[in-house]
């Protein structure tokens, strides 16, 4: 009998790595997107989640709607920082206050400022952190992030919870695309050639993380909005 059979009840418990990943992976680049697998370790993910829970008490998740059609997004959102991204019948824009409470967005916690400093390669601080909540089944269609005035600054993304199938293409909507998974704790930067690349989330893969008790996924994107 082999002692390494995975059905063996005496086999050692699984290593504490995210499901779907055989080992902590090296950074990689896909169509200009730079991915840092496991950038946030388990403790940092929990600390970030705590900070987000506190922020959401002050700035609740809202459901953005499409300009013109008023159709609701499948993701719900909130923001941290001096500016926040919103979308409604009046269009996409950044504003200093929550669209429903009218209050300023909560401050950016040090953990997020540290991630920007470490990964952003940009001398000035971020002004907005858009928080997207993907309940199971939510997705995000292919789009460009182009409501900022300063495309020299990167977009720095952090993922928590269930893994996403993330898709990225080129500067034109019809350019060829590639996809890869973003797991809980992964960071990604869209900078340089990829800053204006079309991208989106095809789907969130249920059961790939136990960070969030009810499943689903949080994605945070740190952005510089104005020119310094
Ligand atoms: O959820 C993601 O990974 C991407 C989010 C995104 O593209 C955005 O908020 O603009
Ligand atoms: Fe985006």
UniProtKB/TrEMBL annotation:
<protein>
    <submittedName>
        <fullName>Alpha-ketoglutarate-dependent dioxygenase AlkB family protein</fullName>
    </submittedName>
</protein>
<keyword id="KW-0223">Dioxygenase</keyword>
<dbReference type="InterPro" id="IPR005123">
    <property type="entry name" value="Oxoglu/Fe-dep_dioxygenase_dom"/>
</dbReference>
<keyword id="KW-0408">Iron</keyword>
<dbReference type="Pfam" id="PF13532">
    <property type="entry name" value="2OG-FeII_Oxy_2"/>
</dbReference>
<keyword id="KW-0560">Oxidoreductase</keyword>
<feature type="domain" description="Fe2OG dioxygenase">
    <location>
        <begin position="125"/>
        <end position="226"/>
    </location>
</feature>
<dbReference type="InterPro" id="IPR027450">
    <property type="entry name" value="AlkB-like"/>
</dbReference>
<dbReference type="InterPro" id="IPR004574">
    <property type="entry name" value="Alkb"/>
</dbReference>
<dbReference type="GO" id="GO:0051213">
    <property type="term" value="F:dioxygenase activity"/>
</dbReference>
<keyword id="KW-0479">Metal-binding</keyword>
<dbReference type="InterPro" id="IPR037151">
    <property type="entry name" value="AlkB-like_sf"/>
</dbReference>
């Amino acid at each position: 009998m082999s002692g390494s059979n995975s059905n063996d009840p005496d086999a050692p418990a699984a290593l504490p790595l995210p499901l779907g990943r055989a080992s902590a992976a090296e950074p990689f680049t896909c169509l200009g997107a730079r991915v840092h697998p496991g950038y946030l370790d388990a403790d940092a993910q929990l600390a970030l989640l705590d900070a987000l829970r506190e922020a959401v008490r002050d700035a609740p998740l809202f459901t953005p709607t499409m300009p013109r059609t008023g159709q609701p997004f499948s993701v719900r959102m909130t923001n941290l920082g001096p500016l926040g991204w919103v979308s409604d019948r009046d269009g996409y824009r950044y504003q200093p206050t929550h669209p429903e409470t009218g209050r300023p967005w909560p401050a950016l916690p040090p953990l997020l400022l540290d991630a920007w400093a470490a990964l952003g390669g940009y001398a000035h601080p971020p002004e907005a952190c858009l928080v997207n909540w993907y309940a199971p089944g939510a997705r995000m269609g292919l789009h460009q992030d182009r409501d900022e005035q300063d495309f020299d600054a990167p977009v720095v993304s952090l993922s928590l919870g269930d893994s996403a199938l993330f898709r990225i293409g080129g500067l034109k909507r019809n350019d060829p695309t590639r996809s890869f998974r973003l797991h809980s704790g992964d960071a990604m930067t869209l900078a340089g050639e990829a800053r204006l690349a079309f991208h989106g989330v095809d789907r969130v893969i249920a059961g790939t993380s136990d960070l969030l008790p009810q499943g689903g996924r949080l994605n945070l994107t740190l952005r510089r909005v104005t020119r310094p």
